Amino acid sequence: MPVDRRPGLEKTSGRDGSISLVLKYQTYMARGTVKWFNEKKGFGFI
Prior knowledge:
Blueprint: H1 17-31, E1 36-38, E2 43-45
């Protein structure tokens, strides 16, 4: 899995790491502040 260099994501360790990332994504998406670009697929959302 490639290194995630998107700003605003804290790296967490342990079993709840992925859960906290999901919750963080949901919060950002709800606020409409996520700016993400996938280099391989060439799409993004704000």
